[in-house]
Amino acid sequence: MKRILKMNLTSLLERWYQKVPFPFFLLKWLLISLPIGVLVGIAAAIFLWALHFATDWREGHLWIVALLPLGGFFVGLAYHYYGKEVEAGNNLIIDQIHSPKKIIRFRMAPMVLLGTVMTHLFGGSAGREGTAIQIGASISDQFTKWLKLSKRDRRIVLIAGMAAGFGAVFGTPLAGAIFGMEVFLLGKMRYDAIIPAFLAAAFGDFVCRYVSHEYLYIHHSVYNVTGDPNHIIPIDHILYAVIAGVCFGLAARLFARLTHWWGGVLRERVKYPPFRPLLGGALVAGLFGILYFGVGEDIGTRYMGLGLPTIKAAFTTQLAPYDWAGKLLFTALTLGAAYKGGEVTPLFFIGAALGNALSMILPLDMELLAAMGFVGVFAGAANTPLACAVMGLELFGTNYGVYIAIGCVVSFMFSGHAGIYSSQVIGMSKHRLFLKHEGKTLKEVEKDRE
Fold first, then answer.
1. Cβ contact 400:238 at 8 Å
2. How far apart are CA 85 and CA 80, in angstroms?
3. Which of 100, 413, 428, 449 could lock 187 by a disulfide, CB 3.0 to 4.6 Å apart?
4. pLDDT at 16 over 60
5. What percentage of residues in the chain have a pLDDT greater than 70?
6. Buried b (16+ CB within 10 A) or exposed e, 129-143
7. Distance CA 230, CA 166 (A)
8. Whole-angstrom Cα distance, residue 286 to residue 47?
9. Using an 8 Å Cβ cutoff, are 419 and 450 in contact?
10. According to the model, what pLDDT value does residue 6 have?
11. How much is the pTM?
């Protein structure tokens, strides 16, 4: 009797869905996206608080940077013995979107959170986007198991989790939603995920802000950029924006290639995985000591951690013209050695500092070039020009919107088929000269070059 009733109910639902599919689709993903956004938003708030605490403690006890190799070794041990299934991080998530197989284990969330906090506590140069994405995806993928979702729906759930994590940790829900749909397939987007992605990103951002402000007393970074919204953009300024975009794209390509090269060297030369962050951490700590004691305390600490004070200073103060290169080197050495964290906030630093340096050459405002570089280098490195352009609008307003968009799309083109996510599949090549790359991952393209 129960079986008959269940069959009749299923039949009625299928008939109703065929007649009114869109309200059913909206209700379904509203009910799924809401808990995903809430859970990811809470986790993101806790993560931001932990990063804030770790950064403050390190800045008051700089001696801890000397223990960076030891901290990396312990994180490496933890992943080697307890986290091999989730060690691939963002690339694992992208692989699962392309070829859904095993459910991502929930342990990815606490392990990457603790690993990232330790990276920052000991002074490693890393970001937070990778952690937020992994937290979001690992939480959202549990709904696949609980709700017994299809492979198609599982892809959408993973995209929604990524969008929620990204949007919550940066306070940019629109960019988070687009990033989730854009990041895994270069040149194409999954529009069947558009409603869940935007809903999850909006819920995640709201919950993260509420918990952060009301209970943890921390806030997202605010960047005040002026500009005349009625200003007519001269043609020569468009040309200067294109030149800046080229520079941002080349810097993004350099960062991606250097990070992957250093990681490859360590994998080839150091067979025991926990020794890789040990060696990489020793190198980073040694460079910190050379700069701190040999050049100046300010230079020594500038390239550690997130670097938020320097990012903010790039909009108002002339920085040293080499600051972008210093952060690029420190971050490539840190992340290439398998320390946990993300690339995006360091890319913000690299881009804003590079834009600041370009203001010494190009006749554009310093704050404008810093804003363009902030999202432009990220656009080229992650191959997500639309998400980054929208992020620029969310963070800096619409006054410089045209410049920001030009910087992002030109950077995207000039970074080539390289990027920070090696599992990214080239759905549509950036130029017809590289049509043979379509359908391949960035990792496969890199191997073909060799």
1. no
2. 9
3. 428
4. no
5. 93
6. bbbbbbbbbbbbbbb
7. 32
8. 28
9. no
10. 47
11. 0.92
Quote the tokens at residue 412: 């995207």
Helix (H, G, I), strand (E, B) or coil at 185: strand
Q: Say if CB 57 and CB 250 are below 8 A apart.
A: no
Asked if 367 and 384 count as a contact pair (C-beta separation under 8 A), the reply is no
pLDDT tens digits for 236-289?
A: 889 999 999 999 999 999 999 999 999 999 999 999 999 999 999 999 999 999
Both structure tokens of 339: 């320390």
Q: What is the pLDDT of residues 139-198, one digit of tens each?
A: 999 999 898 888 999 999 999 999 999 999 999 999 999 999 999 999 888 888 999 999
Neighbours of 193 (CB within 10 A): 25
Q: Are 135 and 72 within 8 A, CB to CB?
A: no
- What's the pLDDT at 129? 84
3-class DSSP state of 231: coil
Q: How far is CA 84 from the centre of its chain?
A: 21
Q: Which pLDDT does position 11 carry in this prediction?
A: 61
Using CA atoms, how far residue 339 sits from 259, 285, 434, 443, in Å, is 12, 13, 33, 20
Average pLDDT value over all residues in the chain: 90
Other CB atoms within 10 A of residue 352 CB = 32
End-to-end CA distance of the chain: 65
Q: Which long-range contacts (CB under 8 A, 24 or more apart) does 150-158 make?
A: 151/100, 152/192, 154/96, 154/100, 155/97, 155/100, 155/190, 155/193, 156/29, 156/190, 156/192, 156/193, 156/196, 157/32, 157/36, 157/196, 158/93, 158/96, 158/97, 158/104
The C-alpha atoms of residue 289 and residue 195 are separated, in whole angstroms, by: 49
Q: Which of 332, 349, 109, 107 is nearest to 221 (CA)?
A: 349
Residues 241, 242, 244: CA angle, nearest 5 degrees: 65
Alpha-carbon gap, residue 85 to 91, rounded angstroms: 12
